[in-house]
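Reopening this one. Same input as before:
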Amino acid sequence: MASRAAQRRSRTAQLNDPSLYINRELSHLEFQRRVLEEARDVAHPVLERVKFLSILGSNLDEFFMVRVAALMQQVENGVSEPGLDGRSPAETLQAIDGSVRSLIDEAYRFLETELLPLLEQCGIRFTDLSALNREERERLDKFFYEKLFPVLTPLAFDPGRPWPHISNLSLNVAVMLRDPEGNEHFARVKIPASVPQLVPVQHNGPAFVWVEQLLISNLHRLFPGLDILHAYVFHVTRDAEVAIKELESDDLLETIEEAVRQRRFRDVVRLQIQADMPGATVQLLANQLETEPSGIFRVSGLVDLSRLKHLLNIERPDLKDKPFLPYIPPGFGAKEDDFFGLIRHQDQLLHHPYDSFQVVIDFLQKSARDPDVLAIKMTLYRLGRNAPVVDALLEAVRNGKQVAVVVELKARFDEESNIEWARALESEGVHVVYGLVGLKVHSKIVLVVRREGDAIRRYCHLGTGNYNAVTARLYTDLGMLTADEETGADATALFNYLTGYSRQKKFQKLLVAPLNMRPRLEELIEREIAVQQNGGSGHLIFKMNALEDGPMIKLLYRASQAGVRIDLIVRGACCLRPELAGISENIRVTSILGRYLEHSRIFYFHNNGEPQCYLGSADLMPRNLNRRVEVLFPVQSATLVKRLREEILETYLRDEIGARRMDSQGIYAAKVLNGGSDCQMVFMTQPHRPNA
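Same output, byte for byte:
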C-alpha cells in the first residue's frame, strides 16, 4: 500500500511540473498565427483572405484590451505568482512582446507584398492622391466638403486647451502646425467611425483611397492661416476590463452602465503609429497617453488592420465565398408544421449554420402564438442589435403568456446592447433577471411550458451558441430540441436557481457549472480510465474553443498515462502539451479554422462501447467551470450519439484542410493546401440525415 501511495505522490508531483504546460497567452497568439495562415491560404477567394486579416486585427485589439491589460494590472499590483507554465505576469508580458511584434510584422509584410498586389490584379487598387487627375481630385474634394468636413472636430493642445480625450479604438491624425509668428502647435483630429472609411476615386470605380489620406490632404482647410508641418495617423487601444462591485450594488443595471462609461477612461495599453512618425510627436503622444515604450507599435502601412473589413462592402461576389443556403430539416419549414408533435416524437439535433437557425426562431415564434403555451423562459448572452428572438418574446407577452428572461449584462463588449434589450423587454412586461451576483450566466437554454389536455409538458432548446441570428450564420454550433421530461424538470430547476432563491444543486440530466459540472466531468473521465485499466477500450473526444483548466489537463494526462486514447479538437488556446513520452503520448490535439468560426462544444465518452455524449456552452477553462453558469446536456438518443460520433466528430478528425496538428512544443503543423478533406465543405455538401 505504501508503495502505491508513493507512486501516486510521485505521479502528482510529476504532473505539477510547469514544463508540461503551455502559457495561455502565448497559445492564444499561436491561434492568431493560424488566423494569419488562413489569410495566406490561396484556396480562399481574395476578399475572404482580406476578411481573415481583418479578423486578426480585431482579435489583437481584444487581446490587448483584455489579456495584456489584465497582466499589466497584475504587475502593477505586485502579483508575482506564476501560472501553470511557471511564468510570472511580468515574464509573460515580456514573452508576449516578442511574439506579438513578430506576428504583426509578418501580417504587414503579407499585406504589402502579397495581398495588396493580388487585389490590384483583381481590379481593386489603392492609389495615392498625387496620382489622381483633376476631375478625380475635384470629386474627392467635393466628398470631403459634403461628407467629412461637417463632422470633423479639430482639437488643439496648448496651455488654454487641455489634452483631448482619445477614445478606445479610435483612429486619429496627429497634426503639427506652425503659426505666422513661428510657434509650433499640436492638434488632434479624430476620424469618426460613422463616415465612409474607404472612398472610391470614381463612382463604383476600381480605385480607392482611405479616408485619412483625404483628410490629411485637406488639413489646410481645417487650419487656415497655419502651415501644416506634418500629419500622422495613430490608433489607441485601452484596457477594457471594468470593475463591477456587484455585492455593493443596489441596482446591477445602473452599476454596469456606470462601469461601461468608466471604460472610456481606462489606461492605454497599445499605441499604434505610422512607422515614420517623428520622434518628438511620438514622445508627445506617449507622455500624454502615459504609454510605455513597450506599448508603442510602429506599423508600415494601414494603421489598424481591422479596418480592412470595409473592403468586404465592395460589390465583387466573384471574389467572395459563394452564398450557402442552410438546410431546413423535414417538418420545420412550413407554418402549419407541428413543431411540438415533431419534438415529442424524437429529439431534434440541429447543426448550425448547415441547419438553419430559423428553426430556433420559428420554435420561439410558434410558442409565442400557440394558445396552449403558458410560459417561456430563456437565457440571453449575446443578442446583437437585430434580435428576432426578442420580437418573439415580446409577441408572447402581448399574447398573455408568462415570459421570464435572464439577460447577462456582464457579457463583455455587449453590455450596452444587452442593457437596451433588458429595458425594452421590461417595458413590455417581461420578467427580466440580470443573473447571479459574482457569476456570468453563459448557458444557452429555452424552456417552453405547454398545456396538453389535462397535463403540462415542457419543451426545451439547449445549445452551444448564442441566440444571435447574425452569428448563427457565421459560427458552427449545435442545438437540441427535446421534450424529455427529466431535462424539462432540470431546466425548471435551473431557472428557479437563476430567478429565485432556489439552492438547487442536484440535477437529473444536466451538468451545471459551478454546481455539478466539474465533479461530473471528472467522474466520466475517471470512468474511462477505469475501463482502460480493466482491459476495455477507453476513448475521449472533446471539441471546445479553449483548454486552459489545470486540474482538467492533469486528469487528461492521467488518462493518457493509463492508455486512454484522447482526441482534442481545440480551436483556440490549448495549455496541454500532447505527445509527450510517458505523459501524453496518447493525446492528439488539432485546431480547425475555416469559413465558419468553430464554436460548438462536444464531450464524447466511449465508455467501452456504450458511449455518452454531452453538448453545451462550456469550455474547459477555470472561468467556465468556476465562475459562470454553464450547461452541458446529454444527447440521449442512441441514433443521435451515433450521428455525432460517426458523422460529425469523425468528419472533424479526418479534416486535412482546416485542421492543424499541435506538437509537444505548442507549434501547429502547416495546413495542407491541396487535396484532402475539408470538414466544413463536407458538412455543407453531404446529404442531411433525419434525426430518427
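So the earlier flakiness isn't reproducible anymore. For the record, The first strand starts at residue 125 and ends at 126.
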